[in-house]
Specification:
single chain; mainly alpha; 3 helices
């Protein structure tokens, strides 16, 4: 028997699922069904935080290179004055 068919045979049928949901002995339990739509906003927020982090790193690198250029320029002037 192909693996896909075996897997399908192991899964419950719709009738079994409906019977389980209608079973009064398990009414005390709560079933929580989540879809990708409940996870997606979390992923979008994580992507946004990562993008902000990368942008901040780029700004810091740019500022560091500016300070380095200023420092290099200051050293050249002090040598000329001496």
């Amino acid at each position: 028997m192909p693996p896909q068919l075996e897997q399908m045979m192991q899964q419950p049928t719709i009738d079994e699922v409906v019977q389980l949901l209608r079973n009064d002995s398990i009414r005390g339990f709560q079933i929580d069904i989540e879809t990708d739509s409940t996870i997606e906003p979390d992923e979008d927020a994580e992507k946004q935080r990562r993008m902000e982090f990368v942008q901040m790193q780029e700004q810091m690198k740019e500022m560091a290179s500016r300070f380095e250029a200023i420092e290099e320029g200051g050293k050249g002037r002090s040598r000329q004055a001496a």
